[in-house]
Design goal:
The complex is a heterodimer of chains A (about 260) and B (about 350). With about 260 residues, chain A is α/β, with parallel strands linked by helices. Chain A is about 40% helix and about 15% strand. Chain A contains eleven helices and nine strands. Classes of the chains: A alpha/beta (about 260), B alpha/beta (about 350). The structure holds thiamine diphosphate.
Chain lengths: ~260, ~350
């Protein structure tokens, strides 16, 4: 395993005896440096999911499905059994896992290209069947892994490498509001949109993930947690600028909060 | 006790899947194999197994991936256009080393083509189909009996090599009715706990299923490991059947439905005094190159008979390696040759050779 230079330096300069331990990484996270760009929301959301898995003590019962996208390496970080699905097919993979092992907790973790473009068919059909798993949907309005092309969620007039003059909605249509779209399906029992650019947002996102894991045990349908993420490298912004862009632009197009809650 | 039934090829296949302990079947309707999904939709739940009509063949194959990745016996079936859609998924399955069974009840193409039998998917089945360096054992049933037998064999070989196995059938073998015997079968007890994703207990490291090796050095090692597996298949899994090859001067090479027709053609030709035999490859990968090489010195000509415009003939040529002329006879578009037309073609070729 590669050593993390930053933590090594910290470890040598810090006498931990003098400090009170207030936070520890969950054991359900593998202790390695993540490959994500500085400020990227993926790493934070990985951590939140793994905190929930640890707190609910369900490591042994949880199987995750990683997408093709920046989070393709999720299985390097999440210390649980995982499968890496083909681009867009996480919901099909998760369907089979959950159908064959109905007592397990299953989740997919997908970007907006993966879930809302190439994989929209699998997504809609899995939710329509009310598959008993959780879909964590990272909406960063861009294709991260392939370096910043337009996603179905790219905002009107937003720059991307394939919309160099901004997204022209007369040409490419309006961004897809996935949470609102799939909440129409009876199979969806819990649909919520959260954000992680503030402490409050992080807390609410974690709460949403906790709810979603718990609802799985009711065997009533699919849970869908959309997280408004960011992409400093491809938005060509600093993490702080990203945070402002989320507050000023993203959550206007993608209103926060529960879209659907179980009856 | 052996059970004998009169069944359609597709139904025999479906029944065999149940008897082989298939845990999960995922499929999407397409002629000429929709009976498989219909039969299993009726029967699988009685055995507490999972059966699902997926939203597409793309979903089917990725469901198979998920099920196989968690250590379950999983299969799908389709016909040509649907199998084309599955190719990316099959490549992922091979890359991630997951055992499963895929059945192609081949119809004539390209494009939407027609629902009648064809063998035009030979290249796709044996030379890759999907992207990247991988191979699959390809079984070619030539009877309803083999539609059943190859399911048991296919699942066992898939487990043995942790690799997908393809059954390449065709619309005629799938649709025709014949007697089929089901022998008692015991699903082998295979320990998949070192890799299957069933939930990580404290006592072991996490298992993950992936085909991704981002560092080229590691990817090459993975490729070499796969290649070693494919070489083992080449070494140990060649299967074929031969008839009247002992004193044969001429040889038909044909698989599946074509082999059935060639059997009759062989009888007619032998009745006319032509010393002809038949080699029927049962595995199309690995291919019986060696047996062809052994037979080549005694032969004057080989005739590859296929329901396509000449695909397997390339492997026949590789097998005989220039030692003997290889000719072709085929029908296309879902048409089937009569045995007489094959014999007529054979006689014309022999006359042309002798005439000069
Ligand atoms: C079939 C296929 N098409 C295209 C790609 C290339 N590709 C990899 S990731 C990706 C998009 C990822 O974007 P997104 O799903 O939004 O996730 P992010 O990287 O932003 O987290 C694409 C198009 C692929 N791997 N497979």
């Amino acid at each position: 395993m590669e050593t993390n230079q930053a933590t090594d330096i910290l470890a040598t300069n810090l006498n931990t005896d003098e400090y009170e331990m207030v936070y520890e990484k969950p054991k359900t996270l593998v202790d390695v440096a993540m490959h994500y760009c500085p400020g990227c929301a993926h790493s934070l959301v990985h951590k939140l999911i793994m905190e929930v898995v640890e707190e609910m003590d369900i490591q042994e019962q949880t199987i995750g499905v990683a997408p093709v996208g920046c989070s393709v390496f999720a299985y390097d970080y999440m210390n649980i059994d995982m499968q890496e699905a083909a681009h867009g097919r996480a919901c099909a993979v998760a369907t089979a896992i959950r159908r064959l092992m109905p007592d397990k907790y299953v989740f997919t973790y997908q970007g907006d290209g993966d879930l809302a473009a190439i994989g929209i068919g699998e997504t809609i059909h899995a939710i329509n069947r009310g598959e008993n798993f959780l879909i964590v949907f990272m909406n960063n309005a861009v294709y991260g892994m392939t370096s910043g092309q337009m996603a179905p969620t790219t905002l009107p007039n937003m720059w991307s490498t394939t919309t160099p003059c901004g997204r022209d909605t007369s040409f490419y249509g309006e961004p897809i509001k996935v949470s609102e779209l799939i909440s129409q399906l009876p199979g969806a029992i819990y649909v919520t949109r959260q954000v992680v650019n503030s402490a409050n947002g992080v807390r609410r996102t974690k709460k949403a993930l906790q709810n979603a894991f718990k609802y799985q045990k009711t065997h009533k349908g699919t849970c869908f947690v959309e997280v408004i993420g960011n992409c400093p490298s491809n938005w060509k912004m600093t993490p702080v600028e990203c945070s402002d862009f989320i507050d000023d632009e993203m959550i206007k197009a993608y209103p926060l909060g529960d879209v659907k809650v179980p009856k | 006790m052996t059970e004998i039934k009169l069944m359609k090829g597709n139904e025999a296949l479906a029944e065999a899947a149940i008897q082989a302990g298939c845990d999960a079947y995922f499929g999407y309707p397409i002629t000429p194999q929709s009976e498989v999904l219909e039969y299993l939709a009726r029967e699988m739940p009685k055995h507490g197994r999972v059966v699902m009509q997926a939203e597409s063949e793309v979903a089917s194959i990725n469901m198979v991936y998920g099920a196989a990745g968690s250590g379950f016996r999983a299969m799908t079936s389709s016909s040509s256009p649907g199998i084309s859609l599955m190719q990316e998924g099959i490549s992922y399955i091979a890359g991630a080393e997951l055992p499963c069974l895929i059945v192609n009840v081949n119809r004539a193409g390209p494009g939407l083509g027609t629902i009648q039998p064809g063998q035009g998917d030979y290249f796709q089945s044996t030379k890759g189909g999907g992207h990247g360096d991988y191979r699959m054992i390809v079984l070619a049933p030539a009877s309803v009996q083999e539609m059943a037998d190859h399911v048991f064999l296919g699942f066992d070989l898939a487990d043995k090599y942790r690799n997908p196995v393809l059954m390449l059938s065709d619309g005629a073998i799938g649709q025709m009715m014949e007697k089929v015997a089901f022998k008692p079968y015991k699903k082998p007890d295979i320990d998949k706990s070192s890799w299957a994703t069933t939930g990580k207990p404290k006592t072991r490291d996490r298992n993950y299923i992936t085909s991704l090796h981002i560092q080229p050095e590691k990817m090459e090692l993975h490729n070499l490991k796969l290649e070693e597996k494919f070489n083992q298949m080449r070494e140990h899994e060649v299967r074929y059947e031969e008839y009247n090859t002992k004193e044969a001067e001429y040889l038909f090479v044909a698989y599946g439905l074509s082999a059935r027709i060639c059997q009759k053609a062989m009888d007619i030709a032998r009745g006319k005094g032509i010393k002809i035999g038949l080699l029927r490859p049962i595995t199309l990968f690995p291919y019986p190159y060696k047996r062809l090489a052994e037979l080549a010195p005694q032969l004057k000509m080989v005739l590859s008979v296929e329901l396509n415009s000449g695909q397997m003939i390339e492997d026949v040529r590789l097998g005989v390696n220039g030692k003997v002329p290889v000719e072709f006879f085929g029908r296309l578009g879902g048409m089937m040759p009569t045995p007489e037309s094959i014999v007529h073609h054979l006689e014309t070729l022999i006359m042309a050779r002798n005439g000069n």
